[in-house]
Amino acid sequence: MSEELIQDLLRALGLAVIERLPNSTYHLLTPAPGWLAAAFESAEPGAQSTLGGALPFLDHFLHQADIAWHDRRAEPVTSGPFAAAVGGEDLLLRASALNLHGRALLVVERLTGEADTRPILQKAREQLLDREQLERQVTKLHGPVTAIAQGLQRLMGGTLAPDQQPVAEGLARAVEELRAVLAPLPAPPQKGRRRTS
Amino acid sequence: MIQKKVCMLGGFAVGKTSLVARYVSSIFSDKYLSTVGVKIDKKQLTVDGRDMMLMLWDIYGQDDYQSIQASQLRGMSGYLLVVDGTRRATLDVARQVQEMATQAVGPVPFILLLNKTDLASEWEIDEQAFFKLAEQGWRIVRTSAKTGEGVEQAFEMLARAMLHAAPSHP
Questions:
Q1: The complex's ipTM?
Q2: What 3-state DSSP class applies to B75?
Q3: Contacts of B38 in chain A (CB under 8 A)
């Protein structure tokens, strides 16, 4: 594969491959992806010439990377996803440090498409919030259901007209069904709840 | 200038990102936007005559989908532990995260933020729980990223605590 093809491939993938040189400086081996160029442009004055100035999270990750390079680990060390505000947009990025052919390499990639897990997590957490909300609503039924059950018990302990007896029994069965549904859910606290700020 | 790393920690959807946005950019959005990974913002302030730069690490909320990594807390000088007052379970998460943070970096200053005070009518957490934590020495500040209540105060209180804290050696 030609050098030019590899360069174009890396650019198309949005990958920046950076070499850490023995004098502790960094050298970009690939053409700068648009997002990386924009990150350097949007860095604060005075910080535009450093990786950490353009992408502050890398300042942190480079400590981990240094250890991996120093130990000449074969397996890449990855940063996990991190977000960077570039040109008014929050980009999701991930960095990896690895040793290859005796060279210390840092690969920074932009996570897009399926690799960008933000929409999935957003959906999952919205559903969790909805579920929590639903559970809160349902647990509020504990009190009224208990009150109905106790009232019914008192009624059925007295004398009911013949036509009232089956109605009361039907209600009692319905209440038991409700209580069975509510059983797995905790009852809301009754004391010390804050109602006003 | 003194630079300090501050992490925003807590469960998901408690308002960590909104608190940073309120503090750094004085903005608030009602729309919940889940944080993935880490995002760093900066804020300069002067505390007791000393210029400080806070590096604010907005770390995704702890839940079944993402767990906070100890490596992300390395170098942290202090943190804000955020609880959503309308969701009781977020206090349990905060307690777990506080234990994890202490194990990772030692006893650095932190403040428990009781967030979403603008939703007082939906409050769910028992006041007694906070009294107990206060008795254990936890600093607690009531905040609302929506109205701005307590936000500046909380960050400044943490900055002051970090400024005067003895260096920790975890």
A1: 0.83
A2: coil
A3: 57, 80-83
